[in-house]
Design brief:
The protein is of the alpha+beta class. The chain has 1 helix and 4 strands; from the N terminus they run ββββα. The protein has a 4-stranded antiparallel β-sheet. A hairpin with a 4-residue loop joins β2 and β3.
């Protein structure tokens, strides 16, 4: 089961938000909060860590 939360990198405008999930070993699932039933992109954990270090 994936537990979703709004990314801390999303704005506070309540509109366009990225949600990241936890609960899947070795990957970080990412989705658009406006389309919770839509597509999910899974990113390897190491790649996600490199990505967020850039900000």
């Amino acid at each position: 089961m994936v537990l979703w939360r709004t990314s801390s990198y999303s704005g506070n405008n309540g509109g366009d938000c990225v949600e990241v999930g936890s609960g899947l070993p070795g990957v970080v699932p990412v989705r658009d909060s406006k389309r919770p039933g839509g597509p999910v992109v899974t990113v390897p954990l190491a790649a996600w860590a490199r990505f967020v270090r850039q900000f």
